[in-house]
């Protein structure tokens, strides 16, 4: 008994220290998020009048996603997800992601888009917010029927995007949002998408496949531009000199882009 009591007492300091560290980590994370939110308001001041940004709900290499509320005219608040793409993202890549959401999204479990804000090199895509589970949290408790429904709804989303000639290339649990209670699903994140040869997404036609890239890399120097895209140097300069409003139409003439490989886990 004494021995076990001693063992228990021995464990106390490390436990307390661990709790303290966790609390400290949580607090510094919270203040880090607050700072990020302030910075986002500063970078894109148009957001201030429209959204109350509440918290960060996702952070990847290429973007941060925030939960925000918007005050609607009718007086009620609507929840939205604000995706702030890292400023080094290539404009063509951003425009292609946006075009996928705009054209294919909003139906059949494919996330849609509500607005897009830009100031200088900061772009924020505003989407309807879908509250969702962490897939790992529910994985072991899903029933056979739930798995069946999950897969059915995933295929529904994929059928829709494939109809538009979009190859998502990053299908994984964190990009397929799942609300278990409401049985709602949404495919998100077209940051790596490519087009089939007959794609209906104009901007994906200029995002070349890796195999095409192989042949062009022999002739032209390439520049990696941060967000999963590299373009040949000539195209990059031309692209950067274009005013933003010409981006969507003008981008079609900028070819020889390629996606960099990403080492994220897939399904
Ligand atoms: P990234 O390109 O950084 O991976 P994603 O578009 O995949 O960005 O979003 C990252 C995370 O943000 C998602 O895994 C999800 O948790 C959350 N998220 C993205 N869009 C929404 C949305 N419309 N509603 C709710 N959460 C979202
Ligand atoms: Mg993602």
TrEMBL record:
Under which EC number(s) is this enzyme classified? 2.7.11.1
SUPFAM superfamilies according to UniProt? Protein kinase-like (PK-like)
Q: Which residues bind ATP?
A: 83
In the record, biological process GO terms are: cell division; mitotic DNA damage checkpoint signaling
Name it: Cell division cycle 7-related protein kinase
Name the PANTHER family on file: CDC7 KINASE, ISOFORM A-RELATED (PTHR44167:SF23), OVARIAN-SPECIFIC SERINE/THREONINE-PROTEIN KINASE LOK-RELATED (PTHR44167)
- Classification via InterPro entries: Kinase-like_dom_sf, Prot_kinase_dom, Protein_kinase_ATP_BS, Ser/Thr_kinase_AS
Give the main EC class: transferase
This protein's assembly is summarised as:
Forms a complex with either DBF4/DBF4A or DBF4B, leading to the activation of the kinase activity. Interacts with CLASPIN (via the acidic patch); the interaction is required for phosphorylation of MCM proteins and CLASPIN.
Instruction: Tell me which family the UniProt entry assigns to this protein.
Output: Belongs to the protein kinase superfamily.
The organism named in the record is: Mauremys mutica
Q: What is its main location?
A: nucleus
